[in-house]
Write a structure and sequence with these properties.
Length: 327
Amino acid sequence: MLRLGPVPLDPPLVLAPMAGVTDRDFRLIVRRIGGVGLVTMEFIASRALVRGVAKTLDLMHFVAEERPISIQIYGSDPDTMAEAARQVEAMGADVCDINMGCPANKVLKGCAGCALMGDLELARRIVAAVRRAISIPLTVKFRLGLDHERPNFLELGRICEGEGAQAVALHARTARQMFSGDARERWGEIARLKAALAIPVIGNGDVREPADVLAMLAETGCDAVMIGRAATRNPWIFRQTADLMAGRAPEAASLAARRELILGHFQLVAAREESRWALHKLRKFTGWYTHGVPRGRELRQRINELEDVPSFLAAVEAFFEQFDEAA
Ligand SMILES: Cc1cc2nc3c(=O)[nH]c(=O)nc-3n(C[C@H](O)[C@H](O)[C@H](O)COP(=O)(O)O)c2cc1C
């Protein structure tokens, strides 16, 4: 079984960090469905954490049921990153992850995220400072490079290994690509990284269904697979993949399971969030969750017109009731 230090990754499937998506409710939903070895929090600005910004601290709340959980931090100052990592450890996270893959301009301008691939010496100092600061496993997530002309992921991988990271995760795209192109055409680079390093490599990029996980493991020899966007459309993907890996036939999510998921997610969000924000979140997630559901478009259109939480709930109930009657 794959381990990051004392933390087992069983099965070796990781929920990718996604800002605005992998919040506490979504992580819990994925965890309750099962089949995921490690969940990751949306990325946390090291400076905001160190300054104790209330919104950031609130974002970082998690519960024991989510474990093992990785908290990802980003920033460009080694001391601030080290202090943020100390706090991550003090909060009880199982793994601390450093973001060196974010291609968003806002983050790049601060020389954080993927910009660190343009300054490997600074990247090295950050990994070293964070490693010294904590005793929990440390991982680093990055891309192929800033662009196709500068593919330096092998170098960065060796730096992470040399500075004591427990694993690295590679998203097989460059920063310039953002989310364009097909990462599957570059899975070969995950294989090259795996061949170059002794520490575990987590492969990432354009896994869309359970069979893709098996393909990535076979084609690249990577130790674990990280899934992002596919989990928003199908939070069952981890359990389905775990079944496939264990030689069992993966089960598609039934309409009843989808109904339960949406309403369950809604209750988690509504219990905590102020109602306008709750509606915004639920619209977003219901949109993803109903892809591929018969007449899902009708529900998506309907919920866009709704202004309050109880009508949203009623609309979801009514939508699924039509199938009960048909059955
Ligand atoms: C909405 C969204 C937010 C993301 N936020 C983060 C983030 O906070 N940190 C990070 O390292 N990657 C982030 N990513 C990148 C994902 O972790 C992942 O590397 C990428 O989506 C490719 O994997 P996928 O094809 O399985 O989605 C984000 C991606 C999306 C779509």
